Amino acid sequence: MTEEWRPITGHGAGHYEVSDQGRVRRLTTRGGRLLALPTQVKVKPNRKGYMIAKLTVGGVTRDARLHVLVLEAFVGPRPTPEHEGDHEDGVRHHNTPGNLQWLTHAENLARKREFGTHATIPFATIQAIRAQPDRTLVDLAAEHGIHFSTVARVRNGQTRITA
Predict the structure, then answer these.
(1) CATH number of 5-113
(2) What is the pLDDT of residues 80-123, one digit of tens each?
């Protein structure tokens, strides 16, 4: 399958493209001249796990969330200011058009709860998960009624604790 590239909108329009595989490339030099060969832009996760591309135009650099770039290029513009990008499978580094959709903030929060990516875990559950490091994520998730990615975050110390 051939990778499809489309121009991005907003900051970086005319200077960058995004692909249906969730990659970004620069089309111009820092001075604005067209490159003979586009260069790949490194994307890195931010502290919340969303993949970020740094886009520089005219000496101004801005962080752009990769899933938003893909949505705008392949699905269409944000329907309203209240809409935000959602990963249908809950995996923040899976940035392909078929895995992304626009949802309102309320809809997105509901999906995060469904996937266990917006959960507050009771302290007793955290203790139980951390006390069993040899068990699989899937087994522990089934036992505690949470998503396996939540179990992984508990093990990595990335959860909030409630009484």
Answers:
(1) 3.90.75.20
(2) 999 999 988 778 889 999 999 999 988 988 877 666 655 567 77
